[in-house]
Design brief:
It is a single chain. The chain is of the alpha+beta class. It is 23% helix and 28% strand.
């Protein structure tokens, strides 16, 4: 149940040389997020990485997920090509070298070698990686689950309660013990407050793929299923102040934003996603994303709406919750 879906699998495009600029690793936890650092490492910490296998990759999304060992510890490394930015386009075109591959009438294809500072690979390191991490990043088939309110109480909730999903990294953010310098906006109110900060999937270099997360201060709300009319002031506060903060910081109006919740979420502390409308963010499809505006209206119509209604969501083949639904004869 990760925010970022697993990708395709092949090793043909794996870089031969990892001496390209490597950003300081974000040591991930089992819930899909780590504590980041903004500075680059002065040396290549990946020079001793031993590749075991490629978990998945995507030519379309230009990334690759690799399992191996780093300093005798299990590790997963995620390599992602950074986007081409408009503000560097002139330098990219004038400062690169070209090698002709094909010419036919008006059409020409070249191999372009960009200057090193415009040819970065965003690198995320998960170390030490557990078996859960390896499974999380490995390509898996998914199944669409139909969960009634009773299914949630009898299958999903007991499963969640038995899992050891640590929320310490969330509390570190809320308590300013980590990532404090990344916070875009905060309302410190303990009941309706939240912190707004960039998601690690966004490199913060261009607004076209803007992606921020609002993490609520209340610690007793796990997911969409817990929301009732009691939480309307919290949801409305996030909706309004989150949009205002993004307009002020990034000059992006509310009409250009997609504001939504995931169900199932990747971690069980209520958080809300803010993305640029034109950005095809992972997990923004109809089978998982619920627009915050719709959530507010549904709860206004029926306080128990999300306690009782049937919800649909995808689960990967290796997800333990999927096994529980199969055991219960619900799939």
């Amino acid at each position: 149940m990760a925010d970022s879906a697993a990708k395709r699998e092949t090793d043909s495009d794996e870089p031969d040389d990892l001496s390209l600029k490597v950003k300081r690793p974000k040591f991930d936890n089992e819930n899909g997020r780590g504590v980041g650092a903004k500075d680059s490492e002065p040396k290549n910490i990946l020079s001793g990485f031993s590749v075991s296998k490629v978990l998945s990759d995507s030519a379309r999304e230009k990334n690759i997920f690799v399992h191996g060992k780093l300093a005798d510890q299990e590790a997963v490394i995620i390599l992602e090509k950074t986007p081409i930015r408009e503000d560097t386009l002139a330098e990219l075109l004038s400062g690169s070298t070209l090698k002709l591959e094909l010419k036919n009438d008006i059409y020409s294809t070249y191999r372009l070698q960009a200057p090193s500072h415009l040819n970065e690979i965003k690198t995320t390191v998960v170390c030490p990686a557990t078996e859960k991490h390896v499974k999380k990043y490995q390509r898996q088939e998914s199944s669409l689950v139909e969960e009634t309110g009773e299914d949630y109480r009898s299958i999903t909730l007991p499963y969640i309660q038995k899992q050891s999903f640590s929320m310490q990294w969330v509390f570190n953010i809320l308590e300013k013990k980590a990532e404090a310098d990344r916070i875009v906006y905060e309302d410190p109110d303990p009941k309706v407050g939240f912190v707004l900060l960039p998601d690690f999937k966004w490199d913060q270099k261009q607004v076209d793929d803007l992606y921020l997360i609002a993490i609520v201060h209340p610690r007793d709300i796990k997911s969409l299923r817990d929301l009732t009319s009691e939480h309307l002031p919290l949801l409305q506060n996030i909706f309004q102040k989150g949009k205002e903060a993004i307009l002020q910081r990034y000059n992006l109006p509310a009409s250009k934003l997609r504001v939504y919740l995931h169900y199932q979420p990747s971690y069980y502390h209520l958080h809300i996603h803010f993305t640029k409308l034109g950005y095809d963010a992972p997990g923004c499809g109809v089978e998982r994303a619920h627009l915050l505006a719709d959530v507010i209206q549904n709860i206004q119509s029926d306080s128990q709406y999300y306690k009782t209604r049937t919800l649909y969501f995808p689960l990967r083949a290796d997800d333990g919750l999927l096994s529980k639904f199969k055991e219960a004869g619900r799939l």
